[in-house]
Amino acid sequence: MDFKSEFYKIQEAVESLKDSENKEIIKSLLLLIDNLNDKVEGIQVNVETIQENVEFLDNDISEIQEDLFEEVSIEDLEDIEDDFKEVTCTKCNKPIFIESSALESGISIPCPFCGENIN
Ligand SMILES: [Zn+2]
After folding, report:
1. If you measure from the C-alpha of residue 108 to the centroid of ligand 1, how many angstroms do you get, rounded to a whole number?
2. CA-CA-CA-CA torsion for 3, 8, 11, 15, nearest 10 degrees?
3. pLDDT tens across 47-91, in order?
4. I need a labelling partner for 65 at 20 to 30 A (CA). Which of 10, 15, 77, 83 fits?
């Protein structure tokens, strides 16, 4: 149903009414309905705009996700894991991840928690 054409049809019918008191009431009701319709149309436009924006955001997020997962593969993660060794601080007993190459070179690394040197 097309609102505007239906509305004009009713408006015409009201104009041809004989009873002037009822005619005025119905005319003000029609005006009210017309105003409400304008508001609904305004809301519809806003909803469409919001939907479009959500779609854009969704696409942006998907692209970001793709980029993130593309750059760090499972193999990359395994490589990173291999590069680090978990050691326990002899003084505070906290686990610390140290680069394998640093451990192999024999240099002492200070514990980030207590400052004790770890070899
Ligand atoms: Zn420590």
Report:
1. 13
2. -170
3. 999 999 999 999 999 998 888 877 777 787 777 777 888 889 999
4. 83
Residue 119 near residue 106 (C-beta atoms within 8 A): yes
Ligand 1 centroid – CA 77 distance (Å): 26
Please say whether the beta carbons of 34 and 4 come within 8 A: no
In sequence order, which residues have a C-beta less than 8 Å from that of residue 23 and are 6 or more positions away? 14, 15, 17
CA–CA separation, 27 and 34 (whole Å)? 10
% of the chain surpassing 90 pLDDT: 52
Four-point Cα dihedral 42, 47, 49, 54, nearest 10: 170
